[in-house]
Every structure is written in C-alpha cells, then in structure tokens.
Amino acid sequence: MTTVTTATTPPGTPRRRAHGMGSLKEVSPGHWKLRVRDPVTNCQVYKTVTAMGSREANRALADFDAEVRAGTFKPARIKKAEAKALAQVPEAPAERTLGQLLDEWLVHRQSLGLSPTTLRGYQRMAMRIQADPVACKTLSALEPFDLDALYGRLTAEGKGPSTVKHHHGVVSSALGQARKWRWVHENVAELASLPKVPKPDIRPPSIEHLGALVAAISARSPDLGSLTLFAFLTGCRRGELCGLRWEDVDWDAHNLRVARSVWELGGKTGLKTTKSDRVRTIPLDDLAMTLLHTRWDRAIERAMHARIPLPVDPELEGALSLPSSWYIWSSRVSGESWRTPGSVSRGFARACKELDAVALKGAMDQKFNYRFYDLRHMCATQMVAMGVDVVTGSARLGHSVPSTFTNMYAHGVSQAAKQAADGLGKLARVALPQAASNS
Q1: What is the CATH number of domain 93-191?
Q2: What's this model's pTM, rounded to 2 decimal places?
C-alpha cells in the first residue's frame, strides 16, 4: 500500500500567483491579507478579507485585482473619512423649506451685528411668512407663482403695498443668501410681481408750524425745544441726535461728526452705528452753533448746582469744561447717559396734539399731524428749494446712495428746476430786452 502524504501550508505562508496577479497571505485562521499592484501608480495596494480556505481567498484576490485595475477600489481609511464627512453634511439643500431658510437667514443676519430694532422687524415679517402655506414649500419646488400668491394673500389681509414690498424684501434677501450658500441656483423672488407702491405724500411742517412747535415744546422742556430746532437744522435722525457727544463737535470749524445712533426696543436701549454704517461730518450754521453753546452753558450750570465735579480746560484759562464723552442732549444732569428716542417722540407728539386742538378751534389753518421724522423731511425739502445739489443734500442726510434723495424728494427737485428756469428767463429778459420784446 502506498501512502500519499499531503503537505499543508501553515498560516502565514504567502500564496504565490502568476506574475501580475498579486499574492495573498493568511495572517490568522480565516483572515487573509491580499496584495496587488496598482497599474496607475505602480504601488502595492493591500486589503484584508475573511475567507474560508485558500480557494475562496483566491477568488477574493481576483476580485480585488479587478477592482484595483478598474480604479474603483478605495482603502478602508478613505471610506471611513468619507463616511465621517458625509455624516457632518446637513440635509440636502433641496429639501429645505422656505420657512427653514428664513430661520437660518435670521440667525445669519443677527451675526452681522444688526440693531435689535431692525432685527425685530425682520423677525415679525418672517413669522408672518412662516405662518403662510408657502413656508412649507421646499426651495427646489418654490416658484414665482407661489410668491405672487403669498403677496396676494397679504393684500387680502389688508396689508398695504409698502408692507407687502417689505415682506418681499425679506424673502428676496433670504433667497439671495441661499444662492450665496449654493442652496439654490436662482433667486425666484426676482421674478415675482409686486403691487405698485405709490410715492409717499411728504408734507413736512412749514416754517410757521416749526416755530409754533419749538415754542410749545420749549414751554415744557427748553432742552427738547432746542433739540427739535437742531433736528431741522441738521437733518439728523432721531437716534443719531440722541447719540451725539460733545467730542463730536468741532467748535473751530463749525462741524458736527455723526458717528453713532441710539436704538430702543422693549424698554431697552443701546448704541449702534448709523443707518448707512458710515461716519459723516456736516457743517453747522451760526444758529446751530448758538444752540450748542446754550446747551453747553446750561449743562455746566446744572452740573455745578448738583455738585458734580467737572474737568478744567487749560485752553480756556482754567474754565470748567464738560467731559467729551457726555451726551449733548442727555436728560440727566451728569450727561453720562443718552436721551431715549422714545422720549423725544413723546414730547414732540404731545406738542402736536396740543397745537392740533388749537387748530381745530380755527386759530390755525392746518392740522399738526406730524411725526418727529418730518423734521428731517422738512430739512430735505428746504435744501431742495434753496437749490442744494443732490450729492450735498444726500451726504448731509446720511443716505447710502444719492438716488435716495432724488427719489424721495423728486417733487421738490422738479419745483426747484422750474424756479431755476423762471429765474434764467428773467435774467435773459434783463440782459436782452430787444430779444424779449420780439418773442
């Protein structure tokens, strides 16, 4: 009898394949380490598999070799890194709804440092939009028709064209940001249709009414009366006036630096930049400088009466001075805190109500239905009537672009242009009497 002895290969012995087919090695029972050469990089590529016997391991090696040659093989570390990155990616942008986008947009806008009052306005409009059925639309399915329907529903609820336009601005800004984030390919709000917004009927106070208002307010608060007149002379916004400090006044050059504004919301106040985020310098006339000098003297007198220590100005021969950080129109004796914008509006509204009652009795020919902001309109219209150019007027008022000045006060510009034409005609008649008589 012939005995056939079969040699077994102990674990750890490499299995040789034909040239170019790679090799395999059983590193432990049932676990095989495969090795093939990448024809592109000419580097060795390894892979560990589980196989029951060499036959199954050889099949795994052949599959591994084919995978490497086809360029579809990815090492385990790369697959792990891709899986980790994929887990950190948020849901697909196309699955986000308009309501979810508005939430993300509000967080982004808040991170930009917007004033609380501006942010609160955005939040109110966003909440109204999120309560509408259009908020459930995914960004990929949102169409201009959906936004037109939203604006139609807002109009049916009694919202005016201007309010609808403000809501459209929120939607458009949110979708514009989504495009920057590459969540959408286009801003469909740009294709939506908006109701026509009529131009505002701006009716600022007349010079006579301004005098009556300043007198009525000064009877209660001389400081607030001076502030009212100063608002007309400078054209500053209410918050900007409250944020003025003595360091902002250039007494020699007769200039005023407008660098900050006071916001008020829910009983809280704070400082922010101006509406255009720019610091501007405006010249002051003699009347405005007189108001500041009077306010300065009164502030020093009150501080001394309250026994508040004041610094001494060596340039004024040792005279007392006010700290540069004190607020000009502060309602406090120390001047360390700013006057609230709401108190300014309340004092102005009280005077308008009193004068309106006088007008109803026939003592005046026009009602005093004004807002404090109308003093800014009055400043602008008077500048137009005096022929001040658009760039100069816009810079004084702190507009972001000069076109704002033109768009808001176009009626005043056209009236000034007509006055200019009449004036030129009169000059021509004086200079050329013969030509005027022949025409």
Answers
A1: 1.10.150.130
A2: 0.66
CB-based contacts of 413, cutoff 8 Å, min separation 6:
384, 390, 406
Dist. CA 348–CA 220, nearest whole Å: 11
User: Are 93-191 and 207-374 in the same CATH fold?
Assistant: no
Q: 221 with 348: CB under 8 angstroms? A: no
Determine the Cα–Cα distance for residues 57 and 35; give it in Å rounded to an integer. 12
- What pLDDT score does 3 carry? 40
- DSSP sequence for 15-71: EE-STTS-EEEEEETTEEEEEEE-TTT--EEEEEEE-SSHHHHHHHHHHHHHHHHHT
Q: Assign 270 to helix, strand or coil.
A: strand
Task: Return the number of other C-beta atoms located less than 10 Å from residue 363's C-beta.
Answer: 9
CA–CA distance, 215 with 219 (Å, rounded to integer)? 6
Amino acid making up residue 173: S
Residues 6 or more apart whose Cβ sits within 8 Å of residue 422: none
Q: In the chain, which stretches have pLDDT less than 70? A: 1-21, 85-94, 316-318, 359-366, 406-439
| Residues whose CB is less than 8 angstroms from the CB of residue 233 and which lie 6 or more positions away in sequence, other chains included | 284, 285, 287, 288, 291, 379
For 207-374, CATH number?
A: 1.10.443.10
Judged by DSSP in three states, 280 sits in strand
Place of tokens 């674990």: 11
**pLDDT given at position 241:** 96
What residue ranges do the domains of the chain occupy? 21-76, 93-191, 207-374, 379-431
Phi, psi of 428 (to 5 degrees): -65, -40
- Per-residue confidence (pLDDT) for residue 399, from 0 to 100: 84
| Alpha carbon 12 to its chain's center | 69
CA distances from residue 399 to 118, 206, 207, 270, 278 in whole angstroms, order as listed: 17, 23, 24, 22, 9
Cβ neighbours around 110 below 10 Å, total = 13
Q: Is the backbone of residue 31 left (phi > 0), alpha (psi -120 to 50) or beta?
A: beta
Angle between helices 98-111 and 116-130 (to 10 degrees): 180
Phi-psi region of 307 (alpha: psi -120 to 50; beta: other; left: phi over 0): left
Paired strand residues for 24: 15, 34
How far apart are the C-alpha atoms of 239 and 115, rounded to whole Å?
12
Cα–Cα nearest to 244, from 182, 309, 295: 295
Buried b (16+ CB within 10 A) or exposed e, 324-336: eebbbbbbeeebe
